Amino acid sequence: MKNLIQEAIYFGGDISPLVIPAELTKQTGLMNPSVFIDSDGDILVNLRHVNYTLYHSEGEQKFTSRWGPLSYLHPENYQKLATTNYICKLNSDLEIEKFCVVDTSKLDVEPLWDFVGLEDARLTQWNGDYYLIGVRRDTTTNGQGRMELSKIELDKENWTAREVSRLRIPAPLDNASYCEKNWVPVLDMPFHFVKWTSPTELVRTYPEEPARCEQVFIKSSNFNVVDQRGSSHVFNWGEYRVSITHEVYLFNNYLERKDGFYRHRFCVWDKEWNLIGISPEPFTFLDARIEFCAGAAVFGEDLLISFGFQDNAAFVLKTPKELVDKYIQEALSHV
């Protein structure tokens, strides 16, 4: 199995952990960061905090806890799965220079489901405004998930972030689905998302028309790989559009409980949105079963990739151009 970090370090790259004070998190999980470079050239990250610690036994799952090989350890006085988001500014060494919680109090209501908050939010900037785009499942009693476009007012002088509007995006064509998640933003196309990779489905939402979400097109492809789900933003790399995607392998562990592991690939489109390449082999970051990439940003000639490890740690990887080119060429050679 390819290990992207091992290769990136070999090519001269670097990895940086993303950590905020433990008194804010009570030592529960930091995960699934989304890196983004804004119009001022600032390296920003949305850092997701969850109110639990995940224990996951790796490999053959021989070393389990008293609750089994996969356990969510919650505070005793609050058993819901709750998310809080922090906007961070990184310096050139990819260390956190400033951070603040995203204040959502203006729009928050009493949650109706056990998953609370905006999950796995990708940070972007369209038409000069900052947005977090993630899935929310706390607005219905059955946990129906929908992507939400959360507009953020970021005060860089005082370093505060406040949610000023919230749009729950309906699914295009048929809004009866149970859970929509992991639509990934196209950085140079405001309010456009890749909903599915293969076949490629591009959708557009309209902030001024909350009930409107259109399927722009759906294009077939001939790649025979595991279903590729959204992870990083879609970014431009030379003559290509590129996104890092993820695939999930679900199984029941020996306690017959749902379990799974995640792997990632590079997906490549031409500028007409024809899918022309997918990595022939999936890769890991740190060889764990539970890893998740939620951001990618072009940084000079290199690529910044942000990912979470076992819901307990968050990192940004500086990936040298030579290695990114290598992965893209491998994807293009995949037939």
SSE topology:
Blueprint: E1 2-3, H1 4-10, E2 14-17, H2 22-25, E3 30-37, E4 43-50, E5 53-56, E6 70-73, E7 81-90, E8 96-103, E9 115-116, E10 118-126, E11 129-136, E12 146-155, E13 160-168, E14 184-185, E15 192-196, E16 200-205, E17 213-219, E18 229-230, E19 235-237, E20 240-252, E21 258-269, E22 275-278, E23 283-284, E24 291-299, E25 302-309, E26 313-319, H3 321-332
Parallel strand pairs: 1-23, 7-9, 8-13
Antiparallel strand pairs: 2-26, 3-4, 4-7, 5-6, 7-8, 10-11, 11-12, 12-13, 14-15, 15-16, 16-17, 18-20, 19-20, 20-21, 21-22, 24-25, 25-26
Account of the protein in words:
By secondary structure, this protein is mostly beta strands. The chain has one domain: Tachylectin-2, Chain A, CATH 2.115.10.20. Helices cover 7% and strands 50% of the residues. The protein contains three helices and 26 strands. The strands form six sheets. Strands 3, 4, 7, 8, 9, 10, 11, 12 and 13 form a nine-stranded mixed beta sheet that branches. Strands 18, 19, 20, 21 and 22 form a five-stranded antiparallel beta sheet that branches. Strand 7 and strand 8 form a beta hairpin. The longest helix has 12 residues. The radius of gyration is 19 Å and the shape is globular. The mean pLDDT is 96.
Radius of gyration: 19 Å
Provide the CATH superfamily: Glycosyl hydrolase domain, family 43
The ordered string of helix (H) and strand (E) elements is EHEHEEEEEEEEEEEEEEEEEEEEEEEEH
Task: State the separation between the terminal residues, measured CA to CA.
Answer: 19 Å
Arithmetic mean of pLDDT? 96
Number of strands: 26
How many helices?
Answer: 3
Shape: globular
Assign the CATH topology: Tachylectin-2, Chain A
**What fraction strand?**
over 45%
**Tally of distinct domains:** 1
Structural class: mainly beta
Residue share in helix: under 10%
- CATH class annotation: Mainly Beta
Largest sheet: 9 strands, mixed
